[in-house]
């Protein structure tokens, strides 16, 4: 059995990008979502996986990490319309 996790990182600003890169270097499958699709695609070109929606990243990931600006954005990306919760298996 593999100990490798599929990790989803929501938000690829300076902190989120750094986390995603570190996780990828550690050997994890890293799924990403950012409202700036060009940033997500750049990460995908470096070996990550760009997801088209928050629901898609939730479906593809064992663990989600939200790295957004504030509580309102966190609530929106997780619980809002089309948020990550909509893609979770057990929600």
What does this 3D model show about the protein?
The chain has one domain: NAD(P)-binding Rossmann-like Domain (Rossmann fold, 3-Layer(aba) Sandwich). The protein is globular, with a radius of gyration of 12 Å. The mean pLDDT is 93. It has a 4-stranded parallel beta sheet with strand order 3-2-1-4, sandwiched between helices. The protein has 91 residues and is α/β, with parallel strands linked by helices.
Give me the number of helical elements.
Answer: 4
Tally the structural domains. 1
**Radius of gyration, whole Å:** 12 Å
Strand order of the largest sheet: 3-2-1-4
Topology overview:
Layout: E1 6-10, H1 14-25, E2 29-33, H2 37-45, E3 49-50, H3 54-60, E4 63-66, H4 71-79
């Amino acid at each position: 059995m593999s100990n490798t996790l599929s990790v989803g990182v929501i938000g690829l600003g300076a902190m989120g990008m750094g986390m995603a890169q570190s996780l990828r270097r550690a050997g994890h499958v890293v799924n990403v979502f950012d409202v700036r699709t060009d940033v997500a695609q750049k990460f995908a070109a470096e070996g990550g996986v760009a997801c088209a929606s928050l629901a898609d990243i939730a479906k593809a990931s064992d663990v989600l990490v939200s790295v957004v600006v504030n509580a309102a954005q966190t609530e929106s990306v997780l619980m809002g319309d089309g948020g990550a919760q909509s893609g979770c298996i057990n929600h």
